[in-house]
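Why should sequence recovery work at all? Because a backbone constrains its sequence more than one might expect. Tight turns favour small or flexible residues, buried strands favour hydrophobic ones, and helices have their own preferences. The token representation captures these environments compactly. In the example below, the structure is given first.
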């Protein structure tokens, strides 16, 4: 009882610092992250895997292997203009997941270091949660970059207009270059491997979703109630 009263007397800043799980704002962001992830999980998995493959598009073509259909899948979802428009919505969803994920990742000042690594000796549910949390943190910059650049590719005029960018300027140029990472064989390997991070996040996210919705268990196995 005393702990509950003490929590109520905390300022919003103190609550976020020490007990973010009790914050209504975090609860709202969690619900957005949870349901958006449940809806676009399969899409993100597909885009992640196809993107990692087409990083080596030129090298594969030189070996006589064409992946143009996969390029079309990654770019237009094999659906022409309509598919590209839907792809833009998917990119917006990915950025939304990054933003909400960054907010709900914070576990409190006492436990934040634990969220940077995976406890491999724990149960599968705990490993799954740790993997989702740790990869979400370490891969945040890359995943956000791919989401933002994906929005730019689909809605270039709206993107540059909203951010007051020069369509032919250095910002949009590097945004496009960084999406593919074709600077050297080393960056291609890095982009291909890191490009699988969204696929792992999607897989672990689906398990978290099933654990919560199907089995009626807390999303985070570290706590009794999320």
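From this structural description, the recovered sequence reads:
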């Amino acid at each position: 009882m005393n702990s509950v009263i003490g929590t109520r007397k905390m300022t919003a800043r103190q609550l976020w610092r020490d007990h973010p799980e009790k914050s209504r704002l975090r609860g709202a962001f969690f619900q957005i992250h949870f349901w958006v992830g449940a809806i676009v999980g399969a899409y993100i998995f597909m885009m992640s895997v196809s993107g990692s493959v087409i990083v080596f598009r030129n090298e594969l073509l030189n070996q006589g292997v064409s992946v143009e259909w996969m390029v079309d899948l990654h770019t237009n979802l094999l659906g022409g203009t309509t598919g590209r428009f839907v792809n833009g919505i998917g990119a917006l969803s990915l950025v939304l997941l990054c933003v909400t994920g960054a907010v709900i990742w914070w576990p409190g000042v006492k436990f934040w270091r634990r969220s940077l690594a995976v406890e491999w000796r724990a149960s599968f549910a705990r490993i799954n949660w740790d993997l989702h949390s740790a990869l979400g943190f370490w891969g945040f910059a890359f995943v956000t970059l791919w989401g933002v650049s994906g929005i730019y590719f689909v809605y270039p005029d709206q993107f540059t207009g909203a951010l007051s960018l020069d369509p032919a300027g250095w910002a949009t140029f590097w945004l496009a270059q960084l999406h593919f990472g074709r600077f050297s064989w080393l960056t291609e390997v890095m982009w291909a491997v890191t490009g699988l991070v969204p696929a792992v996040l999607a897989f672990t996210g689906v398990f978290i979703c099933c654990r919560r919705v199907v089995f009626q268990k807390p999303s985070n196995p570290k706590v009794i109630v999320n």
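A few observations help interpret the result. Residues 22 and 216 are 20 Å apart (CA to CA).
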